[in-house]
Amino acid sequence: MFVVLLAVVLAEVHGGTPPPYKEYYMQQTVDHFNYQNQDVFGERYLLVDQYFKGTGPLFFYTGNEGAIEGFYDNSGFVFELASDFNALVVFAEHRYYGKSLPYGQSTFEPKNMGYLSVAQALADYSVLIANLRSQYDISRVIAFGGSYGGMLSAWFRFKYPNAVDGALAASAPIFIVDNLVDPTAFFGVVTQDYESVDARCPVYVRNAFSQILSLAQQGASGLQTITKQFLLCDELTADKVNHLIGWVRNSFTSLAMVDYPYAASFLAPLPAYPVNVSCNYPPFRAQSPERSCAGCRSVLQWYWRHTEVLQHHR
Q1: Other residues' Cβ atoms within 10 Å of the Cβ of residue 257
Q2: Buried/exposed code over 227-249 (b: 16+ C-beta within 10 A; e: otherwise)
Q3: What is the pTM of this model?
Q4: Which residue of 178, 285, 300, 311 is surrounded by the most CB atoms within 10 Å?
Q5: Opening angle at CA 151, ends 149 and 155, nearest 5
Q6: pLDDT of the residue at 222
Q7: DSSP secondary-structure letter at 290?
Q8: What secondary structure does DSSP assign to 73-114, as a single string?
């Protein structure tokens, strides 16, 4: 059984512009495991046939948690291989994301959310591949995916070996999900990424965490100081301190996850080596112990102003 688990996001390691695609919809069953439910929906997929020579392999990206264009635009490795192997390329959109909404505007009502599952998504992909085989002379099918999409690729190979011949699962945390490794190991790798740029960089972040906790213990006056140093729109309350710390942690984690050696727009339009940029950001490096929060905030401000999420929060 061919499943490759890679520790780097090989499915997302290319800075070039991807080729143009054709957009299609495949009619899917909402519930593949209950034939009394006859509801259907259109699953969107993007197809590239410019490398295909009439016969050859299918490179199938198992779409994950987002609109499929975001993964298509940042998965150049797939196209590099497709050019070498004369492959047909398909990026399938995960149900409940992008335009693949089973119940339109009512998709996210609680009564309709039960059909959002790994099992249903994999069944979608199996049906789609069967349909593609009926249209094209496909010799082999190789699944590709990164992160959750990588987990889907691996599980797809295990669950549907008749549909897919191999899988490349990039940065797929399968071992963590199965409790085979330390669940905190991921954050250790994130820390190493910053340490490799400057050993002081993680210290700056830890100082900010320490200052947040210290100020929070001072009560209302300390919470006001945190509010000012982070330029928060609303006054921070004691019950939101852990939420703030989690937001800070996740922001630095996001920068590490997209620490590509080229400018990319996977999570946000960022320059090459964003971890290097953040660690060397002058306000961050110039922080004093009393201004750790403000120094940390300067980096977060730099990151979030590059994202559409900032506009959403406004």
Answers
A1: 20
A2: bebbeeeeebeeebbeebeeebe
A3: 0.82
A4: 300
A5: 120
A6: 94
A7: G
A8: TT-HHHHHHHHHHT-EEEEEPPTTSTT--TTGGGTTSGGGGG
Side chain identity at residue 4, one-letter code: V
Are the beta carbons of 78 and 47 closer than 8 angstroms?
no
Tokens of 26: 């495949």
Pull the structure tokens for residue 208. Answer: 């900010």
Distance CA 166, CA 90 (A): 15
Bridge partner list, 22? 47
Which amino acid is located at 309 in the chain?
A: V
Residue-by-residue DSSP string for 110-172: GGGGGG-SHHHHHHHHHHHHHHHHHHSEEEEEEEEEETHHHHHHHHHHHH-TTT-SEEEEET-
* Strands of 166-170's sheet in order across: 2-6, 166-170, 137-146, 55-62, 88-92, 40-48, 22-29
User: How confident is the model over 156-184, as pLDDT tens digits?
Assistant: 999 999 999 999 999 898 888 888 888 88
